[in-house]
Design goal:
The chain contains 13 helices and 21 strands. The protein has about 400 residues and is of the alpha/beta class. It has 2 domains: about 170 residues, Flavin prenyltransferase-like (Rossmann fold), CATH 3.40.50; about 210 residues, 3-Layer(aba) Sandwich (Rossmann fold), CATH 3.40.50.10300. It has an 8-stranded mixed sheet with strand order 12-11-8-13-16-17-19-20, sandwiched between helices. It has a 5-stranded parallel sheet with strand order 2-1-3-4-5, sandwiched between helices. Strands 6-7 form a two-stranded antiparallel sheet. Helix 1 runs parallel beside helix 2, helix 4 crosses helix 7 and helix 9 crosses helix 13. The chain starts with 9 loop residues before the first strand and ends with a helix. It binds cytidine-5'-monophosphate. Cytidine-5'-monophosphate binds next to helix 11 and strand 16.
Length: about 400
């Protein structure tokens, strides 16, 4: 909550030109009541629905409504830099498209491109517009870049029809902001790199070698890191999961692509968590087109993939912390202990897989092995809770 700091956290509220713009008045007033400082920015179309004066009185701050206004004393860069969170409510299809494509021709899009804080947007529009592939694709682009979407609700729309498109309730929007800012401090200023999911190694144009990893643990870790205030980079193999809010996602398919993405980011990561189930082998060559059926035995030649975790550990600086995973089908602790030493990680998360355990499940039972020899067995927990416990331990290591 905004009241926990001596200086209140500042929320930047962007209002765009939807009939729901009047609800932004209630949102700003609610955020102020929750103890946040608020600065409001309006697009020219929003000005047709609401006046800057209302927001100026409610927020107690100058409203940013003209890009080139001479009277504006602070620049958009300064306004964006102050914000702990940028909320755009209501967000029109026009704003969503411009934000997805980097167009900055009004106060709200200009602030969006200048901001470096979590961004929450609450779309509001006619249902047909909301469901249009252009809008959905733009929303997906924004989500992939870490923007948090507060989905519109079903209900009566301004045009008289009913459907999904009505701005989410003021309470839901405010509670999303509060939840995001509540725990945001313990990893503030840190960059966390997480790998997740399986890799797919192509055999031919339509077949691949992979494993049953669902990516749930890696995604839960990325979400938890974001909740604790970190800048999060998630490198994900193919999964069916929604990108976690607030997280930058790089999608990869193969182990080699994952290695490259990791090397690009690792040097600036304070904490690296390798939760991906990287395929240990890949076919030596990919067959062109579809490998034809033959009644004879065929031999698939495999070559070992690089061990990304080992490579990163060998480049690790003293200030960097690395967490590895060990998914084993037997002799869990013995195998995990070997991995902890071979891969030179600070913390190894070991779990049994196969036979309905680990991969693809919502719950997991893991044991944490530390580089100083300690072991800590956790009970069977939802993967989100496992992620919390892992970060509690990471924070303990960092504080020592
Ligand atoms: O050797 P094993 O695959 O069991 O090691 C598991 C750990 O190593 C995981 O943290 C996994 O993400 C990582 N790994 C890797 N590159 C590989 C294989 C595994 O980074 N090629």
């Amino acid at each position: 909550m905004g009241t926990t700091c001596s200086t209140p956290q500042e929320i930047l509220v962007g209002v765009t030109g939807s009939i729901a713009a009047y609800k932004a008045i209630e949102i700003v007033s609610g955020l102020k009541k929750s103890g946040f400082a608020v600065t409001v920015a309006l697009t020219p179309s929003a000005l047709k629905f609401v006046t800057p004066l209302t927001f100026e009185i409610l927020s107690g701050k100058e409203v940013y409504s003209e890009v080139f206004a001479e009277k504006t004393k602070v620049s958009h860069i300064e306004i964006a830099a102050r914000a702990s969170l940028f909320l755009v409510a209501p967000a029109t299809a026009n704003f969503i498209a411009k934000a997805a494509h980097g167009i900055a021709d009004d106060p709200v899009t200009l602030l969006y491109l200048s901001s470096n804080c979590p961004v929450v947007i609450a779309p509001a529009m006619n249902e047909r517009m909301f469901n249009h592939p252009a809008v959905q694709e733009n929303l997906e682009t924004l989500m992939r870049r870490g923007v948090i979407i507060v989905s519109p609700e079903e209900g009566r729309l301004a045009c008289g029809s009913t459907g999904k498109g009505r701005l989410a309730s003021v309470e839901k929007i405010i509670s999303t902001v509060e939840k995001l800012l509540k725990k945001r401090s313990t990893l503030k200023g840190k960059t966390v790199l997480v790998t997740a999911g399986p890799t797919q190694e192509k055999i031919d144009e339509i077949r691949y070698i992979s494993n049953y990893s669902s990516g749930k643990t890696g995604y839960a870790l990325a979400a938890e890191a974001f909740k604790r205030g970190a800048q999060v980079e998630l490198i994900s193999g193919p999964t069916n999961l929604e990108p976690p809010p607030g997280v930058n996602v790089t999608y990869v398919k193969t182990a080699l692509e994952m290695r490259k993405a990791c090397l690009d980011i690792f040097f600036r990561a304070d904490i690296t968590i390798m939760a991906a189930a990287v395929a240990d082998y890949r076919p030596v060559k990919k067959f062109d087109g579809k490998l034809k059926k033959s009644h004879n035995l065929i031999t698939l030649e495999l070559v070992e993939n690089p061990d990304i975790l080992k490579e990163l550990s060998s480049k690790k600086k003293k200030t960097q912390l690395i967490v590895g995973f060990a998914a084993e089908t037997s002799n869990l602790l013995e195998n995990a202990q070997v991995k902890l030493q071979e891969k030179k990680v600070d913390l190894l998360v070991a779990n049994l897989v196969g036979d309905g355990k680990g991969f693809g499940q919502d719950f997991n039972q893991v044991t944490l092995l530390f580089s100083d020899g300690r072991k800590h067995k956790l009970p069977l927990l939802p993967k989100e809770k496992v992620a919390e416990k892992i970060f509690d331990q990471i924070e303990k290591i960092l504080s020592n």
